[in-house]
Design a protein that fits this description.
The protein is mainly β. The chain contains 14 helices and 52 strands. It has a 22-stranded antiparallel beta barrel. The chain starts with about 20 loop residues before the first strand and ends with a strand.
Length: about 950
């Protein structure tokens, strides 16, 4: 007895033809492309490549739905990972990851060597599979019937250093009279790609021009003769208050000639020079903007994975089989970076009045004024995620009332058990203790001594303005006193029981037999994330803090499906089939949802087929959206408050009037205000399920004169009541516009007017619209020397918009990955099978993206005070005036195509394959500072490794 997995239907019929479009990525196609793992295969598909994805390039960024560092999750059509459902052999797969936002399936879990194919259902399917199947469904089908063994070695080596990938796997299986058993082991390792490994990421140039297509205006670094890098400023001191307020100072280096006072270097402090003074270009080139810690940061995260899998089935009778699927996966991953270290005492400033400075009276301050020393420290994160999955079930066939029925009753349990470390991090109380007034270190800093430290361990405090400390070089005693390494833990339990019964002949219509399926699912999900003790008690500086996130949900569902032939063997109606499905879902968290889907398959003639479907989908609020423990991040007053300098900031008259009515002066700049604590909290009892309406219509042409198939499909997805965070600025703006429901979500100091806190909880906040066209082409031709095939997939977005509470409309169609990615992506693959040799050539393309529209950048020419030259009269920010300091920003990304080629030779059970990924070494588009980038390389759908060779050697037996 063999299992039949049909993606898009619960009717166990191998002849089923879905009215919804389906994209299939086979194991052979992935191998010929040199694909390293399952994540690369799926994230590179045309349905994902042009949308922002959670991939291995996410170091130092937090994206919606990201389950901690190292996670790789799929967002079909850019609608979010939480709106793409992942199945494993037709069964809902449990999520994995770290920290409080675990919700989506982590593609790291799946070993590429055990995958038979990926089925991607291109439209909503909640009536078939339940919650989350909004943008589509990915069904990962693993090998079940291996009879024999195989072992493979794979290596992928960039032509430059960094980003190497290695994989070793083995599998063995046996099929016998009454069943089967097979298992496999895979070890996967991806080495770190550091910023310093590539020129495009090691230097964050301004990348600015005097005009479009003109000359670069970037300053030249006198030390290198190359364009100046602005990677990460450190190793300097800023004066805070007094006559020299805002002076940025670096220590003068012997043998270096610095500008004169007339040229901008008017430092009154002996041995210190002023730098980065806008309007004085001679002070710019020696900006202290590079350091070794920044260069060692990861562009691509290193990861090691070990996976063990076992599948087995045993026929209890000729018509009943007991079966199991077991999987264990361990992921060890890290992200390396650096962060500025400067006095910012967060809630101790807001609640306790601690100034964000090194006070003039502190013995380690030689300036006689309050200063802000800016140093550097490691900012790394590490994860170990153990993922367990087990399925036990019984399936079979029976006959009753002269009808053949199939059934499947099984239970599945998955557990993501993770430990993460976000260290080293600064103890907030100890950091403040060494920056308190009058003493080098105090045991009683403002807000208290939470970590139980004793200044006897560091009686002289920290020489914050010394050359050593400003470079980020701490003694062992300083490091032990200031920094904490602590573990957090995350578990996600996901288990359910499901039963399905189906037949392909419930009754017979004139056009044929009616298929039928019905079933149930009872599911429990539980999340528990416990950050380290210091983090959850908000005693870490310069890093977001978080409380414990813990909660669960119980779900009960029932579903039904009919597949009915309406017409057959008529003129212009070879066949017409109606597929109808429905589902009712009852959640403890919010209540009941019902969904449906209606699809038509219309074979007009042997050459033409029309297909259409319409229906509803839903997404229940994820556990983290319901139960997220209070996560506190901090934003600047200018970034949060629309009233900040509202007289000259460009806000509209309604906002200006509302700010004035509060008594806020038009030149208000939040003097005395600290960073704003922004709380992200779960919205349990306040959230409703997201709902979606989906429409698909397509035509398939399979001409008789060639082995050719061309499918064109139109899709339209509208999501209502999307769960999201509204954003601190938007909350305050809506209150100022008279939407009083928002006014209780933030607090403002009644005397000094600065914002003292914002509640940015999860709410049903948005409507999202996504429409477009998919094109799929497959052509096969027999030639005298072999079989030639072309396989091509393309997606064009036609609409990508959001309507947010308060009348905010966002149109991100055709933008860069700074928003939701370009409008086009596609691939084109050529294969020639000639006896034992297979030749492959593939092209992956991403379309142009532009953020120049009025809703975003609003143009490409902007004033940049760094390029003002006051001594020479260049001082106007009016770009239409003479002597302005306006420059051209490259706010777009070009069309990009990456080519790959390989040759495979099979002989005597051996397989040898060599190839090159990114054959022509296509770089990511270069970007100016207003785009999402690493160095000057645009993120995040582009190839950061560059040209690389790969080899695969396999042996079957």
């Amino acid at each position: 007895m063999t299992d039949i997995v049909v993606t898009g239907s619960r009717i166990r019929n191998p002849q089923f033809t879905s009215p919804s479009p389906l994209q299939v990525i086979t194991k052979e196609e992935s191998e010929l492309r040199g694909t390293a793992d399952a994540a690369s295969a799926l994230l590179g598909s045309s349905l994902a490549a042009a949308s922002t994805q959670i991939n291995d390039q996410i170091t130092g960024y937090i994206l919606p739905g990201q389950a901690g560092g190292g996670t790789q999750s799929l967002s079909l059509r850019g609608l979010g990972t939480q709106r793409t459902l992942t199945l494993l052999n037709g069964r809902r797969a449990g999520p994995a990851g770290t920290r409080g936002s675990v919700a989506a399936f982590d593609l790291n879990v799946i070993p590429q060597s055990l995958v038979e194919r990926f089925d991607i259902l291109k439209d909503g399917a909640s009536s078939t599979y339940g919650s989350d199947a909004v943008a589509g469904v990915v069904n990962i089908i693993t090998t079940q019937t291996l009879d024999g063994g195989e072992i493979n070695f794979y290596a992928n080596q960039p032509f430059e250093t960094g980003g190497e990938v290695y994989r070793v796997d083995g599998a063995f299986g046996k099929v016998f009279d009454r069943g089967y058993i097979n298992g496999g082991v895979e070890y996967y390792r991806a080495n770190i790609l550091r910023r310093s490994d590539r020129d495009m990421t090691s230097c964050t140039e301004d990348y600015l021009y005097d005009e479009e297509g003109g000359e670069r205006v970037d300053y030249t670094d006198p030390r290198t003769g190359e364009y100046k890098c602005y990677n990460q400023n450190s190793n300097y001191v800023q004066v805070s208050g007094g006559p020299y307020n805002g002076f940025n100072l670096i220590r003068a280096m012997p043998g270096v000639t610095y500008p004169t006072a007339a040229q901008g270097n008017n430092s009154p402090f002996a041995g210190w020079v002023r730098w980065g003074r806008n309007g004085y270009p001679e002070t710019i080139p020696y900006t202290p903007s590079d350091n070794a810690l920044w260069q060692r940061g990861s562009v691509i995260s290193p990861v090691e994975r070990t996976t063990v899998a076992l599948n087995a089935g045993y026929d209890l009778t000729p018509n009943a089989q007991i079966y199991t699927e077991l999987l264990f996966n361990r992921r060890d991953s890290s992200q390396y970076g650096s962060a500025q270290l400067f006095p910012n005492f967060a809630q101790r400033s807001t609640l306790n009045g601690a100034p964000n400075v090194l006070p003039a009276s502190n013995p380690n301050n030689p300036f006689g004024y309050n200063v802000v020393p800016v140093s550097i420290y490691e900012s790394n994160t590490h994860q170990r995620v153990d993922y367990y999955r087990g399925v036990v079930g019984v399936r079979g066939d029976f006959n009753t009332f002269n009808r053949d029925w199939s059934y499947d009753l099984y239970g599945q349990y998955s557990l993501s058990d993770a430990v993460y470390n976000n260290g080293p991090r600064l103890y907030l109380d100890r950091f403040l203790a060494t920056m308190s007034p009058n003493v080098a270190c105090t045991n009683n800093p403002l807000g208290g001594n939470f970590s139980g430290f004793d200044c006897a361990a560091l009686p002289n405090g920290v020489p914050w303005t010394s050359e050593r400390v400003l470079r980020g070089e701490f003694t062992d005693q300083e490091r032990d006193f200031l920094f904490v390494n602590e573990d957090g833990t995350t578990t996600y339990d996901h288990y359910y029981v499901e039963g399905v019964i189906s037949t392909d002949r419930l009754f017979t219509l004139p056009a044929g037999d009616v298929g039928f399926a019905m079933g149930f699912q009872i599911r429990h999900e539980e999340l528990d994330d416990t950050p380290g003790y210091q983090a959850r008690n908000r005693n870490t500086a310069l890093f977001s803090s978080a409380g414990r996130t813990a909660g669960s949900d119980d779900i009960r569902e029932a579903f039904v499906e009919f597949d009915a032939p309406l017409l057959k063997d008529l003129p212009f109606a070879e066949s017409l089939t109606l597929n109808v499905s429905g589902r009712i879902s009852d959640y403890d968290s919010y209540g009941t949802s019902s969904t449906y889907k209606v699809g038509l398959n219309y074979q007009v003639t042997p050459e033409y087929r029309l297909r259409a479907s319409t229906g509803t989908s839903f997404r229940a609020p994820a556990l983290y959206e319901q139960f997220l423990g209070s996560q506190i991040a901090y934003g600047g007053q200018s970034a949060v408050d629309p009233c900040y300098n509202y007289g000259d900031s460009g806000v509209d008259t309604e906002i200006q009037g509302a700010c004035a009515a509060l008594g806020i002066p038009d030149d208000y700049v939040a003097t005395g205000g600290s960073s704003v604590p922004i709380a992200s909290i779960g919205g349990r009892d306040n959230l409703e399920a997201e709902t979606a309406d989906t429409v698909n219509f397509g035509v398939v042409w399979t001409p008789s004169f060639a082995n050719l198939s061309i499918a064109v499909d139109y899709f339209d997805i509208t999501i209502k009541d999307a769960v999201d965070q509204f954003g601190a600025y938007n909350i305050i703006e809506q209150c100022l516009r008279g939407n009083t429901d928002f006014c209780s979500l933030f607090t403002r100091d009644p005397v000094n007017f600065y914002i003292t806190g914002v509640d940015n909880s999860y709410v049903n906040v948005a409507e999202q619209m996504n429409t477009g066209i998919d094109l799929a082409i497959r052509y096969v031709r027999e030639l005298p020397f072999g079989t030639f095939s072309i396989n091509s997939q393309h997606t064009w977005k036609l609409k990508d918009e959001r309507n947010v509470l308060g009348g905010i409309h966002e149109d991100v169609l055709g933008n860069t990955f700074n928003y939701n990615g370009p409008a086009y992506s596609g691939n084109l693959n050529f294969t020639l099978n000639s006896g034992p040799v297979t030749y492959f050539y593939g092209i992956d393309a991403i379309g142009k993206g532009s953020d120049l529209g009025d809703d975003y950048l609003g143009g490409s020419i902007f004033a940049n005070a760094r390029y003002a030259d006051l001594p020479n009269g260049i001082g106007s920010s009016d770009c239409s005036a003479p002597n302005n300091y306006c420059v051209f920003y490259k706010g777009y990304t070009e069309f990009t195509a990456v080519h790959s080629a390989s040759v495979r030779y099979e002989v005597n059970d051996w397989t040898f394959q060599v190839g090159i990924n990114n054959l022509w070494d296509e770089k990511p588009p270069a970007a100016s500072p207003n785009l999402w980038r690493n160095g000057t390389a645009a993120l995040n759908g582009y190839d950061m490794r560059g040209r690389r060779g790969f080899v695969r050697i396999g042996r079957s037996f």
